[in-house]
Amino acid sequence: MILYLIRHGQSANNLMGESVLTDKGEFDEDAYKHYMASRVADPPLTDAGQKQAERLADFLRQARPKHRPVHDDPPEAELRGTDVVNRLGISRIYCSPMLRTLQTAQPTARALGVNPEVWVDLHEHGGVFDNSGPDGAVVGHRGLSRGQMTDLFPGYAIPEERIGENGWWVGGEEDRPDCDARAIRVSARLRAMARELGEERIALVMHGTFMDSLIKAILGRLPGIDFHISHYNTGITRIDYVQSWEDKTPLLRVRYTNRVDHLTPDLIT
């Protein structure tokens, strides 16, 4: 199985969060306090984020190999002289239930003709919350309801057991250990899927901090507080689930991380 991990496009919170660092790259505590007081629980994409999502879709539909045949996406010899839609051969798209990932996946779904499936455990670290309580206290929100998702994103597969008419998130703010534990569960499910799906290629549209936890879980590096695997908005990481040439035992190959070939410099955020 070939796995593409994709961060969502720029969200309203991402844009607002850029003010946390000064022009010199130094942390601005006052700006951070303003950000935490102003961030919204389930932000939409910005105009730039929507453009990133559209460029992502074009890239996944038209992608050309960068390196050697067999080692890239896919061998050009298989495609030469053909009018191929979905050149990467992605057969399944999964996305988190948060608005920004649902929106990011939509252009790709249209371009590839693959309806996404909502996977609740791909949500961002923290869950759906803001700091609108007294003295900046955390207030949990329920997230989009099943009906809202169906109206906004027709064709998406929405799990009945996890997403109802009262939304899907329960509680306040998820802490990092719980996020890491969730990443371990998702990693285990991906290993099982690799056995079930064989050579299929799948894409997961998710979030920056959870992608950090998930990649560390896949590689057996949790807890990993001494380093962070960062992604730009709509950055792509590819991990292949294959077998060792020597003894045919399961083997992971990290082909690339945080690929943003599809973005112009002004859209790298």
Record keyword descriptors for this entry.
269 residues; alpha/beta; Rossmann fold; 6-stranded mixed β-sheet
Share of β-strand residues? 15-25%
Rg over CA atoms, rounded to whole Å, is: 19 Å
What class do helices, strands and sheet pairing give? alpha/beta
Shape type: globular
Number of domains: 1
Mean pLDDT: 90
Tell me roughly what share of residues is in helical segments: 25-40%
Tally of helical segments: 7
Under the CATH scheme, which class?
Alpha Beta
Cα separation of the termini: 29 Å
Which second-level CATH architecture applies?
3-Layer(aba) Sandwich
Number of extended strands: 8
Strand count, sense and barrel status of the largest sheet are: 6 strands, mixed
Task: Return residue spans where pLDDT drops below 50 for at least 5 consecutive residues.
Answer: none
Per CATH, what is the topology?
Rossmann fold
Order of helices and strands: EHHHEHEEEHHEHEE
CATH superfamily: Phosphoglycerate mutase-like
In short:
The protein has seven helices and eight strands, in the order E-H-H-H-E-H-E-E-E-H-H-E-H-E-E.
What does this molecule look like?
Helix 3 runs parallel beside helix 4 and helix 6 (176-197) packs across helix 7 (208-218). The chain starts with a strand and ends in a 10-residue tail after the last strand. Strand 2, helix 4 and strand 3 form a beta-alpha-beta unit. The chain has a single domain (2-267), classed as 3-Layer(aba) Sandwich (Rossmann fold). It is globular, with a radius of gyration of 19 Å. It has helices at 12-17, 29-38, 47-62, 99-112, 146-152, 176-197, 208-218; strands spanning 2-7, 90-95, 117-118, 129-130, 139-140, 201-206, 236-243, 250-259. The protein is built from 7 helices and 8 strands.
